[in-house]
Amino acid sequence: MLQQVRGAHRYIGSSSSNAKRAVQHLDPAEVPPKLLFVTSEMTDFVKVGGLGDVSSALPRALRQTNDIRILIPGYRQVTGGREIALVAELAPFAGLPACSLGRIDMADGLVIYVLVCPDLFDREGTPYADKNGSDWVDNDVRFARLSFAAAEIASGVPDLGWKPDLLHLNDWPASLAPAYLSWRGLDVPTVLTVHNLAYQGLFPRERLPVLGVPDSSFQMEGVEFHGNLSFLKSGLYYASHVTTVSQTYAREITTPEFGCGLEGLLQTRARQHALTGILNGVDESWDASRDPVLPASFTSTNLKGRSINAAQAREAFGLGVSRGPLFAIISRLVHQKGIDLAIRAAEDFVQKGGQLAVTGQGDPSLENAMLDLAKRNPGKVGVKIGFNEAEARCLFAGSDFLLMPSRFEPCGLSQMYAQRYGSLPVAYRTGGLADTIEDGETGFLYSEMNLSALMNAVSRALGAFASRSMLLRMRRKAMSRPHNWLHSSRRYNHVYEVLLGVR
């Protein structure tokens, strides 16, 4: 339900007292920085990938030292069935329509600003595509409207009574915001976090007038990328600081192999000391000792409950009773994730007594290839196209190994979820996988992207499974590895403080 409230804040819930508690440890003379976190997805409402998890967890970690609020489009999943106070109106700009700003106060006091524009966002499908998986044809207008709204809020919207000191923007859907600020002559610090450089938001040059992008910016030192307008490049160029989601990925994207054609610009940002890798964390719900959806809880010192989860996972995926190792794939089924190599590796290890459970969706050809693998190996390979959170958690908690042969992985969360639950990842040494997996200690890494190298890593995993003492030691070390958001939030705070002149 949308409720119009003009010229004042409308608190729905206990946000005021919660916000005070969140910063009560600060010196009374200090005023916490005001941050607007702009995202196209958030697990509380709608999730497509890891960005949704980060957008839910990181702002909550940052609330300890900042007055942080979130801006998200008013998708059907956000507005449906919720009471939303409309607190401001935003005028049209170029070909971008007028819209309203709504406000949701979460139970924990986190403030969400909702960009309410039903013509753009109230649709059946994902944030980016229709129910058939085809990108919305007006995605440029939809996310330019999000970026411009962020810039407007940073400029000051009187009815809000709140103006951010800094914008924290995420991925290409929010990447035009620093450019809009620059074109309006506004000096507001901006941080752009790149979660995956491969998704850039490319649109034809002819769309510039519709989006309010000046012709003068359509050049190499601006928004132009191989004859198109690149949302992501505009953010990389105009943002005060660029972060990405692991230290290794921050180095990788300055190379031709991983730079997606933007490595030159990223090398420049690195030389300017304006590119930083900050590893993601995982939220506190990933705790095997108190996860309510698991059939049985367990700890690193008492792993008995894992066998109950393993039995439940095998039953759920139609696998036979087995004393052999259970491998899991919990992933988008796309080329980036190395699913083609995983299928070929599985053909081998299931003949050696292993089993494979797969959950995910993505490229129809890879989905069908996985289903064919299961048909050829009944009782040994189980595949579920789609995603169920409870089943995925049970699979993390019951599998012995997580197969994750991603060709590139900016950060990756699945390997950290697996480690938390005692499943050892088998992964290519890239991006966040290299930063979170200690080879032979908390998982298995391989350094060449080919089947032979993957199979060698799988063989080492099978060897560890045969040595119960080694398997137990590795599981315990993996479960004890710190993956919380505390360290990450401290590093983000350092970036903010530098940009705001605090240090």
UniProtKB/TrEMBL annotation:
The enzyme's E.C. designation: 2.4.1.21
Residue ranges of domain Glycosyl transferase family in the record: 324-462
InterPro entries linked to this entry: Glyco_trans_1, GS/SS, Starch_synth_cat_dom
Superkingdom of source: Bacteria
Pathway: Glycan biosynthesis; glycogen biosynthesis
Protein residues bound to ADP-alpha-D-glucose: K47
Positions in coiled-coil regions: none
SUPFAM superfamilies: UDP-Glycosyltransferase/glycogen phosphorylase
Starch synthase catalytic domain location: 34-267
Main enzyme class: transferase
Keyword field contains Glycosyltransferase: yes
GO MF annotations, alphabetized: alpha-1,4-glucan glucosyltransferase (ADP-glucose donor) activity
Alphabetical UniProt keywords: Glycogen biosynthesis, Glycosyltransferase, Transferase
Function: Synthesizes alpha-1,4-glucan chains using ADP-glucose.
Record-linked NCBIfam families: glgA, PRK00654.1-2, PRK00654.1-5
Family matches, as HAMAP family: Glycogen_synth
Protein name in UniProt: Glycogen synthase
